[in-house]
Structure formats: C-alpha cells, structure tokens
Write a structure and sequence with these properties.
By secondary structure, the protein is mainly alpha-helical. The protein has a domain at 93-234: Tetracycline Repressor, domain 2 (Orthogonal Bundle). Helices cover 77% and strands 0% of the residues. The protein has helices at residues 3-12, 23-45, 48-53, 59-66, 69-90, 98-115, 117-128, 132-135, 138-160, 170-186, 188-195, 202-220, 223-234. α6 (98-115) packs parallel to α10 (170-186) and α9 crosses α10 (170-186).
Length: 236
C-alpha cells in the first residue's frame, strides 16, 4: 500500500479508537465479520453497510481491499475452506499409523464442522448458487485437491502395511466423512424438531462421532482386518 493510500485509510477511519495501520489485520477483521453476515443472510441478503458497521474499518476500505460484494463473498469462501485445511495440516497425520491417521481426520472434520456452523451455512448457500463462485476460485480447488491427496497418502500407507483394501477410494472416504459431518450441522434444526435433541447432547455428539470413525475405518480396512477389529471391540 502506498503512502497516499495509508493516509487516506487513516483519514477514512478518523476518530475510531484503537485504529492501527495494519492492512492484514483489517482484512482479516472484514473477512470474519463478512463470513458471519453471508452465512446468516446469503449473498443477496448481506449488506456491505452492515458489514462495515461491525468492522474496525469503513465501507470505503472494504471496497478498496475487496472490490465489490461478490468478490468479498468469494474471498470469504476461500477463507472458510482455508481454515478447514489449516486445521487438517496441524494434525500432522503423516507421522501417524494409517488407522490412527484416518481416525484423527474423521474426528477433526466432525468436530470442526460442529464448532463452525457458519462454514456449513456458507457451503449450503454456495450450493444454492450451483457452486459458481467456488468454481471461480483457484485457491479453493488447490486446497481441496490437497485434502484428497492427504487421504491418498494415508491409504497408500494402509495398503503398504497390509491393512487397507487395495480398492479403497480416498475420494469416497472424504465423501463419507464430509456427509455425516455436514448433515450433523445442516439438518440439526429440522432433525431435532422431528426426532428430539438426544443426538445433539454432549453424549449424543460423541456417539455420532465415534460411530462415524468406526464406519470410515471399517470401509478402509480389509474384511478380515475389519472383522478382527470388531471382535476385539466386542470383548469386555
């Protein structure tokens, strides 16, 4: 950012307490607020004026950094996916045995989605838009290719150790993990109203997560390995 723009940014923000010349921090603040607004109101319902009012900057600076509302929405989508993949990287799965790595990944995904309902709502909204804005982002494509590559590495180690089926599909495993973790949040309101909230208690959520892990690991393991694992679990 040049000196004139820095001075202009300070002038626009005049009077706001605690203002700092921190472009990265300002953008992160805008993205965090915008994520909540887009998740609550969708692309068409969210308003830049409302986003600006809840940030530490101004409407003018939002347009400076992001161009327009659609591009801000695209950046919000990218940030939402980046947060998921950053969390996966922090698991350091490459250093774990394949079964443990697959378990950790499934547990993380379930917990992350449960704790970040705005991410789920954004994905629901993007499905309404037929994935148009997601498709425009090269970053999201790269991030999600990386997610499948991570599962492929786990599957390769599992096959090499004689644990996993030769035809185990990383993409299918990702689908099953995502499907259960997504449905748990996306349909919570309707499911709990129809069937009650038992599955949304602490114990209920723990049980769902444990069974998701069992299902995914069972899909990956060779049949004889899966049977041996089931017999071991059944012993008192």
């Amino acid at each position: 950012m040049n000196d004139d723009m820095m001075l202009n940014e300070k002038a626009v923000a005049g009077g706001r307490s605690g203002w700092k010349q921190d472009p990265a921090g300002v953008q992160n603040n805008i993205l965090a607020v915008a994520m909540t607004e887009f998740a609550a109101n969708g692309l068409s319902g969210a308003r830049i004026d409302e986003i600006a009012a809840k940030t530490h900057t101004s409407k003018r600076m939002i347009y400076y950094y992001f161009g327009d509302k659609e591009r801000l929405y695209g950046r919000v989508l990218e940030e939402a996916y980046r947060q998921v993949r950053t969390g996966e990287e922090a698991l350091e799965l490459d250093h774990l045995p394949p079964v443990e790595a697959l378990k950790r990944l499934a547990e993380f995904t379930f917990d992350h989605h449960s704790r970040h309902p705005d991410f789920i709502r954004l994905v629901m909204i993007e499905n309404i838009h037929h994935g148009v804005y997601l498709e425009q982002s090269e970053l999201i494509g790269l991030l999600n290719v990386g997610a499948i590559q991570k599962l492929e590495a786990i599957c390769q180690r599992g096959r090499a150790d004689g644990l996993f089926r030769e035809d185990v599909s990383p993409l299918e495993l990702h689908w099953h993990i995502s499907a259960s973790s997504f449905f748990n949040v996306s349909n919570r309101a309707t499911f709990s109203r129809i069937f009650g909230s038992t599955l949304y208690t602490v114990d209920g959520q723990r049980s769902l997560r444990d069974h998701l892990v069992e299902m995914v690991v069972g899909l990956a393991l060779k049949p004889e390995r899966a049977k041996g694992r089931a017999r071991g679990a059944a012993r008192p």
